[in-house]
Amino acid sequence: MHFRFLAIVFGALLVAAGALAQTNSLVDGTKPVPVIPQLSAESRGDIYMARKMYREAIDTFREGPAGDPVLLNKIGIAYHQLLQLDNARKSYEQALRLKPDYVEAMNNIGTIYYAKKSYRRALTWYSRALKLAPQESRSAPIYMNLGTAYFARKKYQETTKAYEHAMALDPDVFERHGNFGVMLEERTVEERAKYHLYVAKLYAKDGRNELALQYLRKALEEGLKDKKKLDQEPEFAKLRDTPEFKELMATEQRVL
After folding, report:
1. Distance of alpha carbon 211 from alpha carbon 204, whole angstroms
2. What are the extents of the domains in the chain?
3. Taking the mean position of all CA atoms in its chain, how far away is CA 232?
């Protein structure tokens, strides 16, 4: 008990000495040494994620509270980037058990099933997440994921509807990349030419001609067939008379 009291007093003296040193430095005209706060396990883990050091991120996130669903979800994302899909799914499920309405974890479980080409299950999880998600910009990636899963199942009408909803919530949803904070966006598709044509049509309908042409060029570079039919697509009606569209149609694209 006496030792503990001495320790408290000693600590107080150190604090007082630090304050006095800072005061003296202000008096003699020098700048005080800034106090650097200790970063949390989550913040340090986020730094590792940004550097793509996923194993280090996992170890660092685990230094935080064991029952934190946000950390478990982020551990899942780190495993996901390492393509350890089963470990990723287990972490997402643990997060969801701790927080049953965790929309981000639901979405991320959907991306696991999408990666395994279990598109029906992916759609189930995306739909479950959207039932709880607020209709605002941060829900747009879930609608985009939903549309991508429909696209994989060749349900193109549902694809268009989901993508349009995503763009209504966030007009730049297709331009955001590398968002590994708490929710994954699924951008892996097999028919990339057709996918980029879909996005081009969405931008054309929205009057964003520059982006429409950009995605149309991507579609052609990826081997889009029946180039002549593009002239008949109703979504490109306002683009047909522009010099950029005419040049794109006249130029033989090099297939990548």
Report:
1. 8
2. 192-250
3. 35
